Amino acid sequence: MRPDATRLHRPSPLISRREFAALMTGSLTALAQCDQAYCDQTCGSDASDGGYVDAHAHIWTPDLTRYPLGTGFSSKDMVPQSFTAEELFAACRPSGVTRVVLIQMSFYNFDNRYMLDAIAQHPRLLSGVGIVDHHQPDVAITMKSLASKGVRGFRIHSRGQAKTWVNDEGMATLWKTAAEEGLAVCPLIDPAEIGYVDALCKKYPGAPVVVDHFARVGITGKIVPGELDQLCKLAKHPQLLVKTSAFYALGKKQAPYKDLLPMIQRLTDAFGPERLMWASDCPYQVQGDHDYESSIALLRDHANFLSADDKRWMLKKTAEKVFF
Ligand SMILES: [Zn+2]
Fold it and tell me: Which of 169, 193, 224, 264 sits a CA distance of 20 to 30 A from 142?
């Protein structure tokens, strides 16, 4: 039997989390500023009945005056130089993707403003995963403030530090706040760090967790069976979900990416489609020989082991439940 993902969510039968947050913060005017013409055209009267959801993409702007890069980054890191919300929509709409979860771009460190501004402009089409400095004493307040502006999760990027997370005081606050507020913790880790996420899930079972990009199993070019086994063992934590994403970066790293299908099938058996969500990781998925359509086509057209309903979960409903 496949585990039920509904326990991740607070009951909210009458009103979505976004509408609730808008009511609480008086930002209903923001809802009115949504790309209404586009919503009407593609989503009918109800955006939640729209097309596919891309659970992971980044945006940035060449306007470095208004949105300066963080310490340690320069414009040379911006490849491509520009990938705005409009450029993202242009990439994803031809494939039937109508909503996207933005992941705060590392260039901006803890300054989430560019992402927040895009969400404020398109609140029905965009959701967000922010980045906060867990070493700051006010991290819980910062998380709640970002949540009131449409952020539904927080990325934690290991950069070799995952081993320190389980005993870190700031991380404790981050995970507890995520649990209290129903916000997702989104670890970007390497396969060798899966054990640390396992320990964190044991310690903080209340926080929803969404692991990025198969925990990067396959990033070396080879899908190591032992690493995939470890990832699948995380399924014992009912609150943990996995992004099946960043196909351009894993395995043979070559469209149509069919060498990744056995890994996706293993994950489907372990987690069930209700705990898996597809994502492109744009703009990286649309560079060089890679393109957007090849990413979504892997699940939509080539994953014959998935039923139509499985695909609906993985291409839309799982991400919708967690992030919209
Ligand atoms: Zn990414």
Answer: 193
